[in-house]
Design goal:
The protein contains six helices and eleven strands. The chain has helices spanning 7-19, 48-55, 81-88, 101-113, 169-177, 198-207; strands at residues 26-29, 32-35, 71-75, 93-98, 120-124, 137-143, 147-149, 164-166, 182-193, 211-222, 225-235. A hairpin with a 2-residue loop joins strand 1 (26-29) and strand 2 (32-35). The protein is globular. The mean pLDDT is 96.
Length: 236
């Protein structure tokens, strides 16, 4: 395993993020202010959330990857920036799911802050487990915990789950289940990174009889390190 992909390095980033003296209670991003609760992934400490907003067309002039007026499901919502921004961009029904109870509270708080609490529902859910069986969405999106940890690693906190996925168990489930949540003509999206194991992800997609189609690529600097994020559409 290269240092670039080291799960131990990602776990250290997780632990450091929780205890930094400059961790804010409120931060600015995409021209708006957002609440940040303890124990929730901190967007100010990583460029990745801003990249996600751009890739989805929720800022600037990028092509929208959602259906205005349609429905939007975000997995791993964290502070809720993506989900709230989707509602502000015109999505009529937004569901924001997270395995972290603190993240669910944080998303609900930001939905109220930005006046979209009437069309955004924050759900405590392990991927799709807590969703209604008949719910369907025009867009399903997950900015995943793309760093591969050993299959037997057990996260010590819910915060670590935002950084690593032991054995890519969650990724396998997402590849298998996400297309089944789509309304007619909808798209299942996965934002991944070269910090993850792209080859293994493709192998898993093949085993699930899914095809991964690249919809966008972005290279950017995070500190002194150059990263690439890849937006995949899952088909099949």
């Amino acid at each position: 395993m290269t240092e670039h992909r080291s799960y131990l390095r990602s776990l250290e980033r997780s632990r450091r993020s929780l205890t930094r003296e400059d961790r804010p209670e409120v931060f600015a991003m995409a021209g708006r202010e957002w609440d940040l609760l303890d124990g929730v992934f901190a967007p100010p400490f990583s460029a990745t959330t801003g990249i996600a907003l751009d890739v989805l067309g929720l800022t600037g002039d990028d092509e929208p990857r959602y259906r205005p007026g349609g429905s939007f499901l975000e997995i791993g919502t964290g502070t809720g920036i993506i989900a709230v921004s989707a509602a502000l961009a015109g999505c009529a029904r937004v569901v924001a799911a997270d395995i972290s109870t603190a993240a669910v509270r944080n998303t609900a708080l930001n939905a109220v802050r930005h006046g979209v609490g009437d069309r955004l529902r924050a759900v405590h859910s392990d991927l799709f487990a807590a969703l209604d069986a008949d719910e369907r969405f025009d867009t399903v999106y997950w900015h995943s915990n793309f760093v591969l940890a050993p299959p037997d690693y057990r996260p010590e906190t819910q915060h670590e789950i935002a950084y690593v996925d032991p054995g890519y168990q969650a990724h396998r489930r997402y590849l298998s289940e996400a297309p089944g949540l789509l309304a007619e003509g909808g798209s299942a999206l996965l934002q991944f990174s070269d910090r993850g194991d792209v080859a293994l992800l493709h192998e898993m997609a093949d085993s699930c009889e899914r095809e991964l189609v690249v919809r966008d690529r972005r290279r950017f600097l995070e500190g002194a390190e150059e990263l690439e994020h890849i937006l995949f559409e899952i088909r099949g």
